[in-house]
Amino acid sequence: MDVNIAPAQRAIYTRAMASLGEAGVPYLVSGALAVHHYTGLWRHTKDLDLFLCPEDRDAALLALANAGYRVEITAGHWLAKAFMDDVLVDLISGTGNWLAPVDESWFENADEAEILGLPCGVIGITELIWAKAYVAGRERFDGADIAHLIRRGRERIDWQRLLERFADHWELLLLYLNYFRFVYPEQRDAIPRRVVEELLGRLQADVRQPAAPEIAFRGPLLDRYAYLVDMEEWGEPDPRVEIAQERNLPPHEVTIQRAADQRRMTEKRVQPSTP
Question: Which of 78, 80, 137, 184 would be 94's cystine partner, CB 3.0–4.6 Å?
């Protein structure tokens, strides 16, 4: 399936990519264009997702501002945006849950391709699956993307590195692999047996042990809205605060965002119903 992007939107995307290239700012194409690159599947996208290292964010914003875009820093630890007309370019320097900043390893494992007619790097399929695994909210769930990436790009996945990327979150990887097996039972051999056996071995060892009190609540790493009640009413700690502290990032930004989310959810609950 071909990429179907309106000419005006495509021109704004390619202008952004070319501007970053001319300024010497390294970036990786992600989002719907990356999924298309690995699977051939296309869904209309409202924005262009570009991954870059945190230290390159300001240079990227300057390059795009000089090219005529309106720019803003939306969330200091991971997201900036560039606008032209009603078209959006997201500059992503980490995951929104604070867990994984973009670093040189993302570029070392990237794929080289031509996207929208421009040579560029594309986020590696292994890193793409890893990043998408944490997009598991009520308003957006990327499980289908992961299933499609495994089905169409299985030979390109570095399964050992995927295990290493998930690390202590191996249960989440097992969840998505079981999800794939449910969706595509006839394709289950797409996942190497050794990977499934490794994860099942961890699960068997884990269920024989008592619950580990040192492993804290992790819900907000998947959905920043659905687990507000756990933190605000049931007293669970926000795991993103500890992650921010470990990375020398401002943890107060987590609680500020959480308060804004709580207000948004409260306002949504009190909206009058439409007759």
Answer: 78
Please report the pLDDT score of residue 259 as a whole number: 84
Residue ranges in the chain modelled with pLDDT below 70: 1, 268-275
Return the half-sphere exposure (C-beta side, CA atoms, 13 A cut-off) of residue 190: 24
Q: What percent of the chain has pLDDT over 90?
A: 83
The reply to whether 230 falls in a domain is yes
Count of structural domains, the chain? 3
Domain boundary residue, one of 123, 156, 179:
123
Q: Which domain holds residue 254?
A: 219-269
Cα-based distances in Å from 67 to 10, 22, 51, 202, 203: 15, 11, 19, 51, 52
> What pLDDT, on the 0 to 100 scale, is given for residue 80?
98
Report the predicted TM-score, pTM, of the whole model to 2 decimal places. Answer: 0.93
Both tokens assigned to 237: 């700690």
Task: Please state, in angstroms and as integers, the Cα–Cα distance from residue 229 to each residue in 70, 141, 147, 271, following that order.
Answer: 36, 20, 30, 19
Looking only at the bridges linking them, the beta strands covering 47-51 and 87-92 are parallel
Q: What's the CA gap between 152 and 104, in Å, rounded?
A: 26
pLDDT of residue 274: 47
